[in-house]
Amino acid sequence: MQTNIETIYQQHIKPLPPAEQLKLLAKMAEELSNGEKKTEPTKKRSLLELEGLGAEIWEGVDAQEYVNELRNEWEHRPG
Asked: Where are the domains of the chain?
């Protein structure tokens, strides 16, 4: 007597073309990987952890000059 998994494989998976079998395998691996992430306890995060992130992008940029340039672009935008 075949197990349920063996029956599923023989009836539904084995007849699939190899490319479809690979897609199924990738989907199963993705689901299993996501399942592992779900079992890990999630730590509460604070928005304050993002403070200073990307500060180097704005280094040397004058904030008022930047805002003035944006406003100037908005005023000259076709509309």
From this structure: 4-39
